[in-house]
Amino acid sequence: xxxxxxxxxxxxxxxxxxxxxxxxxxxxxxxxxxxxxxxxxxxxxxxxxxxxxxxxxxxxxxxxxxxxxxxxxxxxxxxxxxxxxxxxxxxxxxxxxxxxxxxxxxxxxxxxxxxxxxxxxxxxxxxxxxxxxxxxxxxxxxxxxxxxxxxxxxxxxxxxxxxxxxxxxxxxxxxxxxxxxxxxxxxxxxxxxxxxxxxxxxxxxxxxxxxxxxxxxxxxxxxxxxxxxxxxxxxxxxxxxxxxxxxxxxxxxxxxxxxxxxxxxxxxxxxxxxxxxxxxxxxxxxxxxxxxxxxxxxxxxxxxxxxxxxxxxxxxxxxxxxxxxxxxxxxxxxxxxxxxxxxxxxxxxxxxxxxxxxxxxxxxxxxxxxxxxxxxxxxxxxxxxxxxxxxxxxxxxxxxxxxxxxxxxxxxxxxxxxxxxxxxxxxxxxxxxxxxxxxxxxxxxxxxxxxxxxxxxxxxxxxxxxxxxxxxxxxxxxxx
Length: 480
Known about the structure:
By secondary structure, this protein is of the alpha/beta class. It folds into two domains: about 1-175, Cobalamin-binding domain (Rossmann fold, 3-Layer(aba) Sandwich), CATH 3.40.50.280; about 200-400 and about 435-475, TIM Barrel, CATH 3.20.20.70. The chain is about 40% helix and about 15% strand. It is built from 20 helices and 15 strands. The strands form three sheets. It has a seven-stranded mixed β-sheet with strand order 2-1-3-4-5-6-7, sandwiched between helices. It has a six-stranded parallel β-sheet with strand order 8-11-12-13-14-15. Strand 14, helix 17 (about 370-385) and strand 15 form a beta-alpha-beta unit. The radius of gyration is 23 Å and the shape is globular. The relative contact order is 0.09.
């Protein structure tokens, strides 16, 4: 459309403003243990900077007055574009607020949306009056090329991975962008962030200066509820030297003592984990390290691997168990078994690791009887893992994402998905008020009650000094 291609006069130092809206409301945000790094917009900033383009980042969770900060940037210069990243839920509402500020300041500034939600629903997102262009899929190649075309006032209709309305107001969706080599990502511009906001973790017992890295991308598994099952991003990993250089940089420059691998599936390559551990030991880097993974893969780790991980500093693991019912696990296409789950729990407890076990409830065709098996498994974890801090996450309320197998089943059983970008703000896995017509009112009430009970029990799990009795767990036992 003409306003995008021709109306912006680039300054001598063209600037792009990239925004990560808050994922939750401020009440919940203040309770969170720490702020996660805005990896998506930080990576895009790295690509732009490598091409000589100046960038400003606004991470709402780390800002006292993000709206005013945006307005101040807009007053300084007219940006080439403003980019907003969003997942389904509250982040969309906040993203729309930022879009409104930009549009109110100058209606000719192109507003570009990306992230998981625009990737799932690029056409719907692009139809919103506060969105000019959608970058769907990985933006590593598409977004920098788009920015360069905007700077040069050239057409971008041949760039892969875009969705937008053309001059005739016809919606155009170009071909998907090719996969980007994770090892070619430039050094991340941490100087654009208020680093202490992310490093100084809240409510951390064992570490004081905590940070995150991503050492791989993609997940080869196809859980029927998961957004990753439709992304089709192949698993790829950073080479060992790049990983170690990233970690050494953070230790030397920010004095971190805690590290979290934020990979979608860190446990997929056991040899790679051993190589990372051996290199950490060799370099004498002392860290408390956490990572997430799958129980089927972790259950295959032998004692030697476990000991190497302990020596390297690994102390906390997060697992997506989701359900204690074999039938529900099969409907989720989790491809894990109860035997594997209990084996992992035993390994975690025997070695004194911390762990977070994630659960979900209320998928289409799940019954109350099956959900109670999840509650029974959670009770078992509480009973046998009393040294762990806050061991259970959830069970979250199942949220139907378009393109997934369970989404179609939810629609068949009464779900009416939002038909515009704004209404997707009300969809969130933590929202007890979300409409779930595919389960009964009795089931929904049980989920709400069980989540309340589990939250209260979790609060008692404060580590090795916790004093937990069977009486503390009894309110949960009553529910199954």
